[in-house]
Structure prediction request, 459 residues.
Amino acid sequence: MIDHTTQERPQAAAPAALYTQVQQFYAHQVGLLDDLRAEEFADTFTADGVLVPSPAASPVRGRPAIAAALRAAHERRFGTEAVRRRHWHTMLRVETRPDGALTTRYYSLVLITRPWDPAPVMGPSSVVEDVLVHESGQLLTHERRVTPDHLSF
Amino acid sequence: MIDHTTQERPQAAAPAALYTQVQQFYAHQVGLLDDLRAEEFADTFTADGVLVPSPAASPVRGRPAIAAALRAAHERRFGTEAVRRRHWHTMLRVETRPDGALTTRYYSLVLITRPWDPAPVMGPSSVVEDVLVHESGQLLTHERRVTPDHLSF
Amino acid sequence: MIDHTTQERPQAAAPAALYTQVQQFYAHQVGLLDDLRAEEFADTFTADGVLVPSPAASPVRGRPAIAAALRAAHERRFGTEAVRRRHWHTMLRVETRPDGALTTRYYSLVLITRPWDPAPVMGPSSVVEDVLVHESGQLLTHERRVTPDHLSF
Prediction:
C-alpha cells in the first residue's frame, strides 16, 4: 500500500541545489541499474540499505543481498536473452525529514528493447518511495519501496 | 491550435529556484490528479482558474467545475473499472511574463495500468500550456490549455 | 558503442543553475526538432557541430547538413504522412570538462501520434551523449552521438 500522507501536506519545494542533486543521483543510479552493474548499483545504497521490490515481497537488506536480488530478478525475467533495459523516472518529489534524511516519491517506468526491434516493450509502471541520506557528501539510498501499479489494487 | 511563438524567442532559462519549484508543483499536482482527488486537484487552480481540456472543448471555469469535469472525464473513459492512471510530464519550459505570471509548456503522456497486467496502455500524448501564478507563496494554475496530439492536426 | 567511463567516476552533481539551464535548453531544442523546424533546430548546434544519428552512421557536420539530415530522416520514415512526433528526454547527467565544455548523457524516447488515434506508437529508445558549449551566454550542441537501444547489441 502506498502511503498517501505526503500528498496531504501543503506543497513544500526542496531548494534547487538539493532537488537537482537528487535528480542527478537518480540519473547516475539508474545507469548502473540498467547496465546490470549489480555491485555498483548496490553501492548506491547505505551498508544497511533496504529494498522492497513490491508490496508483497520480503525486504532485501544489505548491499550483497541487493546485488544478488537484482541479478536474480533479471535472470528470472530475461534468462540469457539480450535486452536493453531502461528505467524512466518522472514527477519527482523531495522532502526533508526533521532528522535530515530525504523522502522522495516518483513514477518509474521500465522500457525493454530487444536487438533490431526499434519498438520498446513497456512495463511495469511503478510508484517508488525512497529514503535518501547523505554520507560523506554523497547521496545514498537507505530504503526503497517499489509499488508496481498492477499490484497496487 | 498551439501557439508556437514561445519557440521563436531566443532561449531564456528560468532561474534554478523557480524552475525546480515549478517541477515540484507539477509532481504534487499530478499526484492529486492521478489519485482522482478531484477537489484537492481543483484547489491547485486559482479560484477563477480555467481548464481547456482540448482545443474543441468549452473552457471549464472555477474549482467546483474543474473538480466535476475531472470526475466526469474519468467516469466517461473508465466507468467503475479499476485503473491506475499516471501522467508523465517532460520537456518543461518556464517563462516569466512582464506581469510576473509564469507561462509553461510541457509534454504530457497518460499511462493506464489495470490490475495484474504489468503492461500499461499509453495515451494520449498532449502538449500542455499553463499560466501559473504565485498566491501567498504557493504556485497555482490560473489557466491550462491541453492539446492532445491526435486532435492537433 | 556507448562509452561507459562516465559511470565509473564518483557521482558529481552539476550546480543547480547549470543543470536547470541544460534541462531548459533541451526542452527548447526538442520543440524545434519535433515541429521539424529543421533550420532552427540546426541553429542550436555550433557552426561546426556534429551529429552522429546512430553508431554505424557517418557523422553529419555543420548546420546546413544537420538540417538536411533531419528533413531526410523524417521523409524516409514518414513520407508525407501527418504525424506528431515527440522526443522525451529523461535521466539527464551533466558534467563539466576541464576545458569548460559540458558532457551530457540522457535517455531519449520517440513517441509518434497519428490523427484521431489517441494511442502513440513508441520507439526507438536511445541513449544520447552530447558535448555542449556556451557561446555568447547561450548553450549550443557541439557534438551529439545517438545510440538507439535496438542497434546497441
